[in-house]
Specification:
Blueprint (H helix, E strand, L loop, with lengths): L2 H17 L5 H26 L8 H7 L6 H7 L4 H6 L2 E6 L5 H10 L4 E4 L9 H4 L16 E2 L14 E2 L21 H10 L7 H11 E3 L10 H8 L6 E5 L9 H12 L15 E4 L1 E2 L1 E2 L2 E2 L2 H10 L5 E4 L3 E10 L2 E10 L5 E12 L2 H11 L2 E2 L1 H6 L6 E2 L7 E2 L2 E7 L9 H6 L3 E7 L2 H10 L7 E11 L11 E11 L5 E2 L7
Parallel strand pairs: 1-2, 1-14, 2-11, 5-6, 15-16
Antiparallel strand pairs: 3-4, 6-8, 7-19, 9-10, 12-13, 13-14, 17-22, 18-21, 19-20, 20-21
Helix pairs in contact: 1-2, 6-12
Flavin-adenine dinucleotide binds next to β12 and α13.
Pfam family, one: GMC_oxred_N
Protein name: Oxygen-dependent choline dehydrogenase (CDH) (CHD) (Betaine aldehyde dehydrogenase) (BADH)
Keywords: FAD, Flavoprotein
């Protein structure tokens, strides 16, 4: 029960007692406490309001306002993005970026006994309600937890010159805190191709499989129903890792006819049912798997760092700390990273040194940026920006992304029936089909090797406020299905001209 309803109930109880002329001592005490309760309630509302704007308040205020269980002392004890703490600290490794890559890496290094500093430009928004509830993720894009990048005009899009939003998480948890939280490994064939065609050692599917298994804690329901795969579920899926993986449908959503219709329609047009697309094979249609559990989104900070932070004093997190560049030392033609230059939330700029390695895990867009700012990149390009080239390398090229094409189908007006817990957990992307296009089949023949699936068709079932979408004639609530076509990363569309502003 929230503060408002508690106060209302207390007032109602008092009013009743007064009516019967029976104001008890407890009633009087409650009446006396009322101004304090109201003041606390008002302060809480003010804190929430302050935390919602663009870059509102301090990181500490944002962390505290949505989660009363987190105490101020916890915050100060655990997150050290202050000048004094960073200057007095001593670290073996500095990991830049606390996203999907940085969090598990920092956790593993710390568990192995190393002293680790995890540096993150964003704040502690991973605890906010918007981040915790996948259903609200649409609100996060272009908000203060998104870097807010946009592409340069794309001549080949319609209308020509259209710009694309390129969301990237800027908070503890990185993009795992703002994404659709679907748990998808991709096509095994792609890993094998990278290993063979590009000589990426250790990247064949058999070699990456143990790592996939080690990070996931898959619910018992997944894999076991996949016919002959009951035994192969153990070979392909992990049950003891940090990230909880679950499907929401069934049993959480109960029967949702739109989802069943979608599965049936795919089967009728010849696509096989696949109960576990993260199992032995990708193609086919089935329920979506999410990194989620009872409490909502399982972002990487919550999965890997939060549970161990208190128990590993050698693991340090500096949030709202922007890495400006890597400090490089050049001796006898060798270049060595010795630390990072960071800018704190206060605007202070300082150098933090480490004894062993600097690990850059700032994402596909910002890792190359940090390298280039540090003097690693194409000499000509660096010179244009007045940066001395320390090591000439083709950094920042060949960016590939997967375009997403939404198609909206409007359904009949319908009551929202989803249970509260399911609503909290679900991002509504309930089922998907991994499918191979004719283009990909042709490529398969040319390359003489299997390529898996290249198209990901996702069913999204949403209830929306119709006035939000300007469907004035429609009933107030309606259910509609949106099918998103999502090209899987292996055969990504190339954007030769994409550079962010
Ligand atoms: C909208 C959206 C939906 C997606 N949906 C899915 C999905 O459903 N399933 C799926 O598997 N994948 C999905 N993805 C992709 C997935 O989230 C990313 O591939 C993955 O999170 C990338 O991990 P990363 O560690 O490379 O980068 P990130 O997770 O982006 O982490 C990089 C971190 O580095 C920080 N950083 C950057 N620069 C600096 C700096 N200079 N100093 C300090 N810190 C810095 C950033 O703030 C960020 O926290 C989605 C991505 C987006 C954007």
């Amino acid at each position: 029960m929230d503060a408002a309803s508690s106060v209302t109930c207390a007032l109602a109880a008092l009013a009743l007692r007064l009516k019967n002329g029976q104001l008890t001592t407890a009633g009087k005490a409650l009446l006396g406490a009322l101004p304090i309760l109201l003041m606390q309630w008002r302060q809480r509302l003010q804190r929430q309001k302050a935390a919602r704007g663009k870059h509102p308040g301090t990181a500490e205020q944002r962390a505290l306002c949505f989660n009363p269980a987190i105490q101020k002392e916890d915050f100060e004890e655990r997150f050290i993005g202050t000048k004094e703490a960073l200057e007095s600290g001593s670290f073996d490794y500095i990991v830049v970026g606390s996203g999907s890559a940085g969090c598990p890496l920092a956790a593993r290094l710390a568990k192995a006994g190393a002293s680790v500093l995890l540096v993150e430009a964003g704040g502690e928004a991973q605890r906010s309600m918007e981040v915790q509830m996948p259903k609200k993720m649409w609100r996060l894009w272009q908000s203060e937890v998104d870097w807010g990048f946009r592409s340069v005009p794309q001549e080949k899009l319609l209308p020509p010159g259209r710009r694309l939003d390129m969301e990237r998480g800027k908070t503890l948890g990185g993009s795992s805190a703002i994404n659709y939280n679907m748990w998808v490994r991709g096509a095994p064939e792609d890993y094998d191709r990278w290993a063979e065609e590009f000589q990426c050692q250790g990247w064949s599917y058999q070699e990456v499989l143990p790592h996939f298994k080690s990070v996931e804690r898959v619910s018992a329901a997944i894999g076991d129903a996949s016919g002959d795969a009951a035994s192969s579920a153990a070979a392909f899926r992990g049950r003891g890792g940090a990230v909880k993986v679950n499907t929401l449908h069934p049993p959480m959503l109960g029967s949702m006819e739109e989802v069943e219709d979608f599965l049936r329609a795919c089967e009728e047009t010849g696509d096989a049912r696949n109960e576990d697309y993260n199992g032995p094979r990708l193609p086919g249609v089935g329920y979506t798997q999410f990194n989620t559990e009872g409490g909502g989104r399982e972002d990487c900070f919550n999965a890997f760092i939060e549970p161990i932070l208190r128990w590993y004093p050698n693991l340090h997190v500096a949030s709202e700390t922007f890495c400006r560049k890597v400090l490089l030392e050049k001796t006898d033609g060798q270049v060595r990273a010795t630390g990072v230059q960071v800018e704190l939330r206060t605007g202070d700029i300082l150098e933090v040194k480490c004894r062993r390695e600097v690990v850059l895990s700032a994402g596909a867009l910002l890792t190359p940026q940090i390298l280039m700012l540090s003097g690693i990149g194409e000499a000509k390009h660096l010179k244009e920006h007045g940066i001395e080239c320390v090591r000439e390398l083709p950094v920042g090229q060949n960016l590939q992304d997967h375009p997403l094409v939404p198609t909206v189908l409007l359904g009949e007006p319908k009551e929202e029936t989803m249970p509260r817990a399911a609503y909290r957990n679900s991002s509504s992307l309930n089922a998907q089909l991994f499918w191979q296009s004719e283009v990909d089949k042709k490529r398969e023949e040319e390359l003489k090797r299997p390529l898996g699936a290249d198209i990901q068709i996702i069913l999204v079932t949403l209830s929306v406020e119709t006035d939000q979408l300007d469907f004035a004639e429609q009933a107030r609530r309606c259910l509609f299905a949106m099918i998103l076509v999502h090209v899987v990363c292996s055969k990504m569309h190339r954007y030769p001209a994409i550079l962010t502003d």
